[in-house]
Design goal:
mainly alpha, about 5% strand, single chain, two-stranded antiparallel sheet, 10 helices, about 325 residues, 4 strands
Length: about 325
Amino acid sequence: MSLADYLAKNYLTADSKPEKKTKKRKRKDASQSGLIIADDDDALGWGSKAVDADDDDAPVNVHAGSAEFRKTKKNNWQTVGTPTPSSADQATADAIIASAAAETSARDRAAEDEAPTIDDTGLKMESGAHAGLQTASQVAAQLARKQAAERHRFATDSAVHSGQGTETIYRDASGRIINVAMKRAEARKQAEEEAAKTAAQIEAQKGDVQRAERERRKDALKEAKYLPVARYEDDVAMNEEMRERERWDDPAARFLTRKKMGRSVTGKPLYAGAFTPNRYGIRPGYRWDGVDRGNGFEKEYFAARNRRRDLKELDYAWQMDE
């Protein structure tokens, strides 16, 4: 060993590397700057003990200033409630969630089985719950019991209690029950009477001859079904009907021999004297004294009609002469 080596080994010490002066804030030690996740019960350090490295419940130091934490390019943070990328971890999480749901449903069933006993001797309100200080579970159980009882009563009640299919009861202003069937019968009878009265008024506006003519047409229709289809000129009934028809302008009416009818269609006597013809062929009453009390319209009507016919015939004759 040389003298230089001996002196360096026994008497010399290596100088520490001088720190660079910078304006940036010095980084603290990783142990001081790390994020500590600890239990709330031991946050003040009471009852601290040696922490096993394999203990999952032990506080975890996250060294935010370590070189590995800074240099890593992979995001190691995970959001709670989202599935993890690993299929094995996903299966484990699904199993934990399923077990938690099963435990919740089991607790709910146990709570239903262990529902509080309801005492019906106390004062009840309209909602079905008892008056006074109670727990929320007792009130909920009482409300559910009342709803179940009402549903059962609605399902089992007969039509007599429920009123289904029954007739509506009507009352007047004084509160007396109105018999609907009787009122309907009275209204129907009144409507029939009104219809009969209206028909009687319409019938009264018609004359006796029109009513007799209508009855005659009805009888003719009844007899028509026994008549042959074709009627010839030698038909006796048709000839008698046409012969008995009166025409005011018939020039041969006085030459025809017809049976004198002493009474009219209505059964009243006929006027036997002469009278001025009219458009409708109506004979005067058998009590007429022979005095025409009209305004002369029928006379003017027939005169104008005859004048028009004469002018037409004269015009035709002049045309033939030319």
